[in-house]
Amino acid sequence: MIKQLSREDIANMQERERARLINSLSGFKSANLVGTQDAQGNPNLAIVSSVFHIGANPPLIGMIIRPDTVPRDTLSNLQATGHYTLNHVNSTIWQQAHQTSARYAPGVSEFSEVGLDTQLADGITAPYVAQSQLKFALALREVQKLEINGTLLVIGEVFDIQLPHDSIKADGYIDIESLHTVAISGLDSYHETRRLGRLSYAKPEHLPRQLNLNGE
Amino acid sequence: MIKQLSREDIANMQERERARLINSLSGFKSANLVGTQDAQGNPNLAIVSSVFHIGANPPLIGMIIRPDTVPRDTLSNLQATGHYTLNHVNSTIWQQAHQTSARYAPGVSEFSEVGLDTQLADGITAPYVAQSQLKFALALREVQKLEINGTLLVIGEVFDIQLPHDSIKADGYIDIESLHTVAISGLDSYHETRRLGRLSYAKPEHLPRQLNLNGE
């Protein structure tokens, strides 16, 4: 049986209920930990489910953050140092990753509170998460306020990538499933994945064919 | 063994290889079909992997499109009618969904070319995909050019949602895994999911506990 929800039905929902519903609409979301540090080098870690691809050349990644709900530390830190890291959440750390969303007092390190380790790299003024298998560092390019609801679009350029050597395939594809990267649905549901397949570049003349993991 | 890629390594990659690599970085991506129609009512369908949540109240969804690579029809149609639909790609239509990315001649309907059916609804000047289980209609709110690389951020407000009655849980969460919604990695890999669990709202005092599907 099909349920239909109108604009009015949505507007009349209770706040938390609507938040869970609307957060489920976009589909599966990426699960990343944002690593930052303040001017004194104190580390901060926050989970984000709104990281998305903007462009490959230059390599640009976007993320949406709410000044009111996300630890303000993340925003002020990445603006202070100009750097932040994104670290894939995997199936061994998903519960610790979720716990970083608790409102710890400013100055408290979510790394130590949830039991994850910082990993520092030369020339990057932000900590990586040691337990994450695929991680990359970004230089802040812009913070744009979306006037329509006051959320912030943060855009960064990737300048360092660290991952297991054999997870990159010959054609550049990274097998993130083999790294046990998880996906999020709604506000609080975490999921492993099982590959249906890779498909060839679509052309009008014929249907796509299945590729192997190496893109062949 | 860990591989590290520097800014120079990334810049020196071959174009398609870099595109596959950078598109793999953000993590798992949502898989949606954008349904639109032109002023004459001719339907158009295109797969997008860049749909993301912007806010719940009002219910705002964003998507990034590249004027140069995405069928221009999608953009001109949603600007002409003011409406578009987003339809979850599921594990029964993932190959047809991928095929919509082929560059069909303008005016050709991807629906008929790939074998998906339009589903019309009163007051919505855009077609739904009949074979999609979770679908919603949006009223265009803004199209913003990201000057940093010329891509477009399209923001719409949700005004109609259609889904199986039992997929919405008591607390508003939609069990999109039960609808066989798929996730995308890179440019061409499709994935089913298996739930690890739902977690309670994180609080500093204690670790999150596992919730059941109903959020209890």
Describe what you observe in this structure.
Chains A, B: Keywords: Flavoprotein, FMN. Chains A, B: This is Flavin oxidoreductase. Chains A, B: It holds the Pfam family Flavin_Reduct. Chains A, B: Residues 33-167 form the Flavin reductase like domain. The structure is a homodimer of 216-residue chains. Helices cover 17% and strands 39% of the residues of chain A. Chain A is of the alpha+beta class and 216 residues long. Chain A has a domain at 32-182: Roll (Pnp Oxidase, Chain A), CATH 2.30.110.10. In chain A, the strands form 3 sheets. In chain A, strands 4-3-7-10-11-6-5 form a 7-stranded antiparallel beta sheet. The N and C termini of chain A lie far apart (42 Å). The model of chain A has no long low-confidence stretch (mean pLDDT 96). At the A-B interface, β1, α2, β2, β5 and β6 of A face β1, α2, β2, β5 and β6 of B.
Q: Short description, anyone?
A:
The structure is a homodimer of 216-residue chains. With 216 residues, chain A is of the alpha+beta class. The first copy, chain A, has five helices and 14 strands.
Keywords:
39% strand, alpha+beta, homodimer, Pnp Oxidase, Chain A, 216 residues, FMN binding (chains A, B), globular
Kindly report the oligomeric state of this protein. homodimer
Summarize the largest interface: chains and residue counts.
A-B, 111 and 112 residues
Structural class of chain A: alpha+beta
Please work out how many helical segments of chain A DSSP would assign: 5
What do we call the CATH homologous superfamily of the domain at 32-182 in chain A? Electron Transport, Fmn-binding Protein, Chain A
Computed Rg of chain A: 19 Å
DSSP strand tally of chain A: 14
Q: Tell me the major beta sheet of chain A.
A: 7 strands, antiparallel
